[in-house]
Design a protein that fits this description.
The complex is a heterodimer. By secondary structure, chain A is an alpha+beta fold. Helices cover 30% and strands 31% of the residues of chain A. In chain A, helix 2 packs antiparallel against helix 3 (62-84). The chains are: A alpha+beta, B alpha+beta.
């Protein structure tokens, strides 16, 4: 019973000491945020020094005293050097690009070193031990990417990160906790290539040409995300600007990617297949819409539509 | 994890730096094995080959242990321990698999540096220690920062060591000193070369070949004549036909020594190098000494424990004296004992002298006459003697060093019925005019005789002076024939002005170095509890206790670390180094005080336009300052003149 009380007290103390707080904007590492303790090597070194001191006394080695004191005071000053290696750094969380589950999310952090001093061998790691090590030159900003594997779809939070350094001698361990409100969107893992649903095409709406890839129907100006093979290079050569060839689909219809088309599969599997379809439909330049139990996206095409669809799939059934 | 090759090279240099100075005293096989191991490791690193398997290393370790056992007959003790550490450091390099192994090598390297100080604590050793530390710390930083290049590492390491030096000074001065040893020392803790408590032919002449310093002496007033400088050491009583020994020392059972008719007092300070023996050296005859030591019945100054660290003492001697005019009969009898049946010719000669002379003094004069008349030679390389050593020397070879003369003289005296004994010690000394002190070296080792004369007590007789007066007046190099003195150390040869010596600048340099060494010895190596007390008292510290020293030490360290902290953290402070921006902000503050504040979103041009509208009188100045500022900051101009103009304009605004 006292054990649990003690553990609870310790937890309380840690909570109070480390005050987990969500950081937003720019964080400056001041002395209140940096903790420092000797490492195991540091304690080992103290033992070595004590043995040396005993030897000095026993053998009256004056020069031995000098050596022991030199090493001892160097070790003492190392604490300051280790602390200084992290102090006054400014950190801002950047945007993490969405990735598919199974890939690695890259959380981006902008470190700014305003001082005249280069910082070396700083480690940023998360609670699960994914880490990145970097140096920060003097008076420069550096972009640091922390890779964290994306396992599940949805929002991946960076969680509480630890920034630490043991530079220059590894005798002290200085660290600081960072908890930014940054998160990375994880799309569902795309299923293995599947044929697109055919039966979902709806007729009646195709009074005008629908983009397809059978017959050439003219040129339109380039939009970011258009497939490279469709760029009209000849038009570019005639100095008509960047144009894209347009084809009209024979079907001339919209493609609906529907949750309801996949009744036999578990929910996550459905999302994976839908993701695959979205990717394939987008790659083929089709006009496609997405229909999920709680959401419907009308048929469109282009990069932003694709991102919107993937986002809907990633967050399907999850809190936004 | 594979360690960076450059890190491996760095560690190799560390181990090389700590091992190499030991090569001079380690057995050859250890140095060779160590060199082979380091070379092997360097080759593996260079050719990127895998490390040797563990069983092979274990075999080498077992072989090394066996070798140490065979060489030293133990695994402990100083020599064996140092050897073991050096071999382990080299072997650990061949087992360098992780950062942890590298850390162990670094710690081991730091530790092995200290073992070097058993053998030498000279200024040069100290400099080498600093260089070694710099290399070790630089390598250590590499371990903690893979990929950082040499130059920044060297810079950081230098900064760290430079910061450590003043802190070390504080600790060195104030760390409460304890006189060691804390526990029993291994037998071989101290090497010593110096006088022994026995003398046989060759023992003093061998010493003469060493230029090691025995002690240094600073005289308070005028130094005595060189011929008067007899530094008394062990007194030898018992002779077995080959070796003279002190015999048992009998404290207290005899009458206390008496010294009277004293004249020519002299005060001086001796700094004695550790020689691992109990006796201290003083001019004949010492009457007072500043350290706890006693005087034996034969006027030797001895302390209870061997001198294992450099010892400094003040002494008072009287050059004129009468020693034990009333001597204990048992002592006089002991001073007449001779081994039975040896050296019949010498015995016969002595018997003749005794028959013809009335007093002991007359016998003594006859003997000295005999030595100076009969063509004796002073030589470092006497012909080997046979069974009857004294006879062979006196009647056949007639060539010898001071121990031969002292030994045969005392033999003759005893055979003639005059109580006599052999005294060993040092004679003379070399004056260092830069430091105003005398250096007495092993090469000044000497042996002379003392005879007891009725009414005069023990009288010093130096038979060597009878055949080679220069030995006493000028030193050993001047007294020896040229062919012999070539064998002497260079330093000792140059002492003699009569010889073709070294150029004067070299002699000067030598004195400078010795002065420096002396200061180093006095202040750094000889900084013991007494010295510390004296020094702190001189610095104005009162009621010195170890607590007070510790508090002062910690306070000093804290103060210095605080100062360092201020300087180090200032490098991180966010300061505007952009002079133009600083001036512009000052200008903005001035405008703000006039009620025109610049909004955060406002650029300099917009702000200038608005300000000019609000204060038309100031419009030209505002436009001027803004134009200069924009040119400096956005026009990529760093013209000093424009900057100066901006500064003027802002000041006058």
């Amino acid at each position: 019973m006292p054990d649990t009380v003690l553990a609870a007290l310790r937890q309380q103390f840690r909570t109070w000491l480390f005050r987990p707080k969500i950081d937003s904007g720019t964080v400056t590492l001041n002395q209140r945020r940096i903790f420092i303790i000797p490492t195991r090597q540091g304690i080992g070194f103290v033992v070595v020094l004590l043995v040396m001191l005993l030897g000095d006394i026993n053998y009256n080695l004056s020069l031995g005293y000098v050596l022991t004191f030199l090493l001892g005071t160097t070790a003492l000053m190392t604490m300051l050097h280790t602390f200084r290696n992290m102090a006054q750094l400014e950190i801002r969380a950047g945007h993490a690009e969405a990735v598919f589950a199974g890939d690695t999310a890259q959380f981006v952090f902008h470190f700014h070193n305003n001082g005249r001093l280069a910082r070396y061998h700083i480690v940023l790691h998360d609670a699960d031990g994914h880490s990145v090590t970097f140096d920060l030159p003097a008076r420069q900003s550096t972009q640091v990417k922390l890779p964290i594997p994306a396992v599940r779809r949805g929002w991946l939070e960076s969680g509480r990160l630890t920034l630490l350094t043991e530079f220059p001698l590894g005798l002290y361990h200085a660290w600081s906790y960072l908890q930014f409100d940054t998160r990375c969107l994880i799309y569902p893992r795309p299923a293995a290539p599947q044929p697109l649903p055919v039966g979902s095409a709806q007729s009646g709406a195709g009074k005008f040409n629908v983009a397809g890839d059978e017959d050439f129907s003219g040129l339109r100006s380039y939009v970011a995300g258009d497939a490279i093979p469709r760029i009209a290079w000849k038009a570019l050569a005639r100095e008509q600007g960047l144009q894209v060839k347009q084809f009209s689909a024979q079907q001339g219809q919209e493609l609906w990617l529907e949750w309801a088309l996949l009744p036999a599969h578990p929910a996550e599997r459905k999302l994976e297949i839908l993701t695959r379809w979205v990717l394939d439909a987008d790659a083929q330049g089709l006009l496609y819409g997405l229909r999920l139990p709680d959401l419907e996206l009308s048929p469109q095409q282009g990069v932003s539509h694709r991102a919107e669809c993937l986002r809907a799939l990633a967050l399907c059934g999850l809190p936004k | 994890m594979k360690l960076d090759t450059r890190l491996v090279y760095g560690l190799l240099v560390c181990v090389l730096l700590i091992s190499a100075p030991h090569a001079s005293h380690l057995p050859l096989w250890v140095s060779s094995l160590s060199a082979v191991l380091l070379g092997w490791r360097a080759y593996l690193a260079y050719s990127n080959k895998p490390l040797p398997p563990r069983w092979l290393l274990l075999a080498v370790v077992a072989g090394s242990l066996l070798g140490i056992l065979l060489s030293f007959h133990t695994l402990f003790g100083r020599e064996a321990g140092v050897t073991l550490l050096i071999l382990l450091a080299a072997l650990k390099l061949l087992e360098l698999r992780s950062a942890r192994d590298a850390t162990i090598v670094i710690y081991l390297a730091c530790f092995v540096i200290i073992t070097r100080f058993f053998y030498s604590q000279s200024l040069l050793t100290a400099l080498l220690m600093l260089v070694t530390l710099l290399v070790i710390v630089t390598t250590w930083i590499h371990l903690q920062s893979t990929g950082l290049s040499l130059r920044p590492r060297l810079r950081i390491a230098s900064v760290m060591l430079l910061q450590a030096i003043p802190l070390t000074l504080i600790l060195f001065v104030l760390f409460p000193r304890v006189q060691g040893p804390l526990w029993g020392l291994p037998q071989d803790a101290y090497t010593s070369s110096g006088l022994d408590d026995k003398m046989s032919p060759g023992s003093v002449s061998n010493l003469t070949l060493s230029d090691a310093v025995a002690f240094r002496v600073a005289f308070k007033d005028k130094p005595p004549q060189r011929g008067q400088m007899y530094w008394r050491g062990p007194v030898l009583w018992d002779f077995d036909g080959h070796t003279w020994t002190t015999g048992p020392i009998r404290f207290g059972r005899l009458k206390p020594v008496q010294l009277d008719n004293l004249a020519f007092p002299i005060d001086y300070t001796v700094t004695l190098e550790p020689h691992n023996k109990n006796w201290l050296f003083a001019l004949e005859m010492p009457t007072r000494i500043s350290v706890p030591a006693g005087m034996t019945f034969d006027f030797q100054v001895q302390q209870k424990l061997p001198v294992t660290s450099r010892l400094r003492y003040d002494a008072h001697s009287q050059l004129g004296f009468r020693a034990n005019a009333e001597e204990d009969l048992r002592q006089l009898q002991r001073a007449l004992m001779l081994p039975r049946g040896l050296n019949p010719q010498a015995q016969k000669l002595a018997a003749e002298w005794r028959a013809s002379a009335v007093t002991g003094e007359a016998v003594m004069r006859t003997a000295l006459d005999y030595f100076s008349r009969e063509g004796f030679q002073y030589s470092l390389s006497p012909a080997p003697a046979g069974e009857q050593e004294i006879d062979d020397f006196l009647f056949v070879t007639r060539k010898g060093f001071c121990e031969h003369y002292a030994s045969s003289f005392v033999f003759l005296m005893r055979a003639a019925g005059v109580p006599a004994r052999v005294v060993t010690g040092y004679q003379g000394g070399e004056y260092n005019d830069l430091g105003n002190y005398y250096i007495v070296r092993q090469s000044d080792a000497h042996a002379w005789a003392e005879v007891w004369l009725r009414g005069r007590g023990w009288v010093r007789v130096d038979p060597t002076a009878a055949i080679a007066p220069a030995r006493v007046e000028l030193g050993v190099a001047a007294a020896l024939p040229a062919s012999d003195s070539a064998a002497l150390p260079l330093i000792v040869q140059a002492q003699s002005p009569g010889l073709i010596g070294l150029p004067p600048w070299l002699i000067n340099l030598r004195f400078n170095l010795d002065t420096l060494t002396n200061q180093w010895n006095q202040w750094v190596l000889g900084y013991n509890p007494e010295r510390q007390f004296a020094f702190l008292t001189r610095m104005g510290m009162e009621a010195i206790t170890w607590q007070r020293m510790a508090f002062t030490m910690l306070g000093g360290v804290a103060l210095l670390v605080g100062i360092f902290t201020l300087f180090m953290l200032r490098q991180l402070a966010v300061r505007n180094t952009d002079e133009a921006l600083r001036l512009y902000l000052k200008f903005c503050r001035k405008l703000a005080s006039k009620g025109i504040e610049r909004d955060a979103h406002e650029g300099p041009q917009d702000f200038a336009a608005r300000a000019a509208q609000m204060q038309p009188k100031l419009a030209p100045a505002i436009a001027d300052i803004t134009a200069r500022y924009v040119a400096l900051r956005y026009g990529n101009q760093t013209d000093k003149e424009v900057l100066a103009a901006l500064r003027r304009a802002v000041r006058n605004f």
